[in-house]
Here is the input.
Amino acid sequence: MTDWNALSDAEFRAEIRGFFEAEYPEELRHLSHRPKFAEIEHWHVKLHAKGWVAPAWPTEYGGMGLEAAKLLIYYEEQQRYGVNRGRDMGIQMVGPLIIKFGTQEQKDYWLPRILSCENIWCQGYSEPGAGSDLANLRTSAVIDGDDFVINGQKIWTTMAHDATHIFMLVRTNQNTERKQQGISFILAEMDQPGVEVRTITTLAGETEFCEVFFDDARTPRANLVGEIDKGWTMAKALLSFERIFIGNPGLAQNALAQLETFAKGRGAFDDAVFRDRFATVALDVEDHAALYSRFADQLKRGETLGADVSMLKIWVTETYQRITELMIEVAGPDGGTLGPLQVGNIGVDVLSSFYKARPSTIYGGANEIQRNILSKAVLGL
Amino acid sequence: MTTEQDEDLRLLRDSVSKLLDRAGGVGRARRVRDDGAGWDATVWGELADAGVLGVATPEEAGGLGMGLPAAGVIAEEIGRVIAPEPVVPCVALGIGLLHRLCPDDPALENAIAGQAVLAVAWQERGPSGVSDAVDCEFSGGTLTGSKDWVMGLGDDAPVLVIAKSSDGLALVRVAADAKGLTKKAARQSDGSSLAALNFSATPAEVLAEGAAVSTALADAIADATALTAAELVGLSSASLTLTLEYIKTREQFDKPIGSFQVIQHRAVDMQLMLEIAEAGVRESLAAMENAPNPQARARQASRAKARAATAAQNITREAIQLHGAVGYTDEFDVGLLLNRALVLSAWLGDAAYHRRRWLEAREAEEAAQ
Here is the structure.
């Protein structure tokens, strides 16, 4: 088996890029919606055969065993070529948790099924009363013989209508001092009488988010991962890599390239006002990438990232939004038109980009929450 | 960048910042301003002794040969205490032109040793701001025309002038007391002066002529622009530091004002602007070291100045607001930083100018490909 970490960054990047360019289906590049599994299954089969489904997992569990710096390159190339992440909740969230906290039986049973996508996962974290204040969650799991009985409601569950399983944070103890205590991490099947899924239609007219209702749903006690009542700390432990990746420049860089193509086609570069605004956002992207490199270099040196890494997420998502807003201005009277707008022989879906940028300042910890964290942890306020 | 280089830069930063703190920190800028002396000759000598002035001059020309990233470190530290000494103009323009065009002229060694502060007069005033052309003419050993926005010109110091000659551009030297030279100082918001010079058949000594002068001038201006950006980064950092200290101690409604979320979020945004500026400017300086052509160097310099000027203006203005009424007094140091930011942002082009230049350079590079 190849030791990917032994390659130079450039060699590794070339390897990844070469595979994506040769094998990734053209019709799936830069998808503007989140696909159901059936739509991307043919790609997943190739990726699985190559052994590249789980870049971050250790090789003994079927992953690529990439160190953080190589992992960043993998994701940068994925984003650059517009390779869909696939249905990766199992890969990104459940697998690492089981690898770190699960029993041998759980590893043997679940990990191969995650890799093959025999099981497709969705994430049950947020609730109507637990968004930014996630620890306020109330969905309960009560022990009944060999099972947990689950009651409550999850929301913003991405692609729950196309998932076979859900991993969730549930309250297993009502009598704790702090609300972060008494939360457990459990796995459950979606296809059972006590689980009901309703899709939520977004501003963009899409239905990728769902509400999931639990009414005496059941899952075996063996599906508890880690210690009971200790789920909060475990879930937080998973987020360290997430915190730099969510601030990567990819989305903003792709949007900027799209803006440039569109603006050239529309002759906007003849307009002095547009030129200044374009230069502003382009430099916002370029200088963000410089800061991102500084954090990535820290990872390469094997250092642990501090709380200040959240700055990346704030800056890149707000820049991303400004870029898509500028695209709408360039569209002029077509600014409210759905679907691709033609410039030359290229279609640019301005509204789709605009919509996609909106929730970026909300998900992954709203930017206001990120500012709270930075203020406390970095500025000492 | 290797860790050895990192370590060199760290040591350099350490020694320069210690020297400047010993000299008096931010508050010194107020004293020097009130004395009206322009800068402190003793501090200038100490900076020269520390090797600061020759940091970016190649070793074979008598410098340290540490390159632009090292000069950037110095500029950041100069900015952090808003030292009134004209380090960036002298290092990037005066010394920068001499080491490129006439490395054997004794003036270079003198300048690096701190014995003369070398100001360069290159811009000219047109009907609506900076003129694109050089009209100041050198012929038959004399200079006629005018120059403006000369930073760091001492009373008794000679001045280097860019003039047009029969062979393109020329770099000439004019003595401080030369016949037909008149000087007018425009007082700046930070107490410093920008000089406007008029030459009327003024005797001048030619140092270099021809295409090499244009190339060296473009490089020197790019360096000065990017290093001024680094100075603005240091200044912004000082402004934020003062502001954080203030909002942690100033109490209203029985609490430090820094405990209010609206203040916290504004402070985070200042920090964010600073970090982005620091990362961007440092990356630009490193890229300029290895830039494939003058266009790419100029683009990086414009990127740096556009970012740093924007950050410094925003941060120093926010700093005044978060200080409240005392921020509007001369007694508090944050005001000094704002006044200095105004001068450094305007000198060599403000943010809007450099965004325009950046985009033009980017388009020119694309077209050339």
Summary: The radius of gyration of chain B is 21 Å. Chain B touches chain A at residues 244, 247-248, 258-259, 261, 263-265, 267-269, 271-272, 275-277, 279-280, 282-283, 303, 306-307, 352, 355-356, 358-359, 362 (CB under 8 Å).
